[in-house]
Amino acid sequence: xxxxxxxxxxxxxxxxxxxxxxxxxxxxxxxxxxxxxxxxxxxxxxxxxxxxxxxxxxxxxxxxxxxxxxxxxxxxxxxxxxxxxxxxxxxxxxxxxxxxxxxxxxxxxxxxxxxxxxxxxxxxxxxxxxxxxxxxxxxxxxxxxxxxxxxxxxxxxxxxxxxxxxxxxxxxxxxxxxxxxxxxxxxxxxxxxxxxxxxxxxxxxxxxxxxxxxxxxxxxxxxxxxxxxxxxxxxxxxxxx
Length: 241
Known about the structure:
Elements lengths: L12 H8 L8 H12 L2 H4 L11 H26 L3 H4 L1 H30 L8 H23 L4 H17 L10 H30 L19 H8 L1
């Protein structure tokens, strides 16, 4: 007597891999997106096991510190957004969370500026890394706008003085028609929605570009060929000598 298992057998991994490689599946848009993503961002570059020796530098510590400070800024900002803009004026706990938010912003900008200037003097745009450098600079500029709208959202005399001093300068450029620094509702929405999303997107793109292009190497020593430079065959002997 033969006993038949009513449950269908699960396909093993070999069958799944064989099915995934069918020629008729290559035309599907999901397969095209997956293959394009894997080709552009291979897993071994997104999560590398090893890094070059020159990555052990303090300049990259400040880059990681910038990301860590940004995470604290986002976390404390979410708490302040949930509890409301007046919470930190009437609660000691709210004042503590607001102080964490403020000082994490200070650390964020300090570490970012050190990282930015350090990479500037290292010419971090070398070796087809222009996009990495540009996203870092644009992220800094957008972060300044996010910090500015944060100061305008304090609901105290500081924010009142900052807004009244800034409105004339902004109005002189014509931007005051769509960016009214005395409008608390508009400034807090810019501060908690639009600008943070832009900063997070730019940081994500920046990190992806670092993973894709790698960390810029130090300047070559005298007589060495810089990274990415094509040397004609006729001059190869001279360069090696």
